[in-house]
Design brief:
CATH superfamily: P-loop containing nucleotide triphosphate hydrolases
Oligomer: single chain
CATH topology: Rossmann fold
Number of domains: 1
Helix content: 25-40%
Structural class: alpha/beta
Shape: globular
Number of strands: 9
Radius of gyration: 19 Å
Order of helices and strands: EEEHEEHHHEHEHEEHH
Number of helices: 8
Largest sheet: 6 strands, mixed
Amino acid sequence: MDSSANSNIGLKQSQTKGHNILPLKLDNVSYEVNGMRLIKEMSLTLNSGTSTIILGPNGAGKSLLLRLCHGLIKPSDGALTWQGPANANAAQYQAMVFQRPVMLRRSVTANLHFGLRSRGISRAERDQITDEMLQITGLARLAKSPARALSIGEQQRLALARAWSLKPEVLFLDEPTANLDPAATHSLEEIISTIKTTGTKIVMSTHDLGQAKRLADDVLFLYRGRLLENAPADKFFDEPQNDLAQAFLKGELLWWHRQELKPPSEVKYRGIK
């Protein structure tokens, strides 16, 4: 990535006055499939200005929570409400990048043009934004290459560029660096950090504690579909209140600790009676 391009980012500011959709409020949200509740009575508010990292072991519900927030699936109970003035057009001001992004069967440049064209952006502006995205994400030399021929790390950079080019107020990221080597991970983290500087709210799931410490302002800790801790990152990593969060940070096997998971209101915390 060309870090020198950061000072020339034409996409600032991602948020346009009057077009804000945040905050996003989840009120007692549950999600059920075939009688099994996978997300359980979850309440939280996602505000602008921070990067929120979702942590938890496999099966905790991290990806489901992102899909619920993005509107790809609907809650079985409870409500998700965009509370900003542009809430009626929330889909237009958010984007999501998946662990395995879908690449269109066309060139890198054409992948970037596709989303911009669907928004009715003129050819001249599409060219300008695409060139900028290619430079910032280090993909300029691959502009004419088939997107599906890229490495996984390069595809993820393209997926981030494609999402960022639409100027989302909120960008949901589902473990975007899973299975990448350290160099590719570092490259993506740089891009994510740069996107945040343009005003976009980052909501990202990861299983990498080091990555969470580098990127998080706030942490949501999930376990078996429940939100057990919602705290500023420094407080979470220094003094996690929930015993399962403590075990997770120590790398312990959480399923050995509690067979039946209780709601947060019924869970005992260390040092609190």
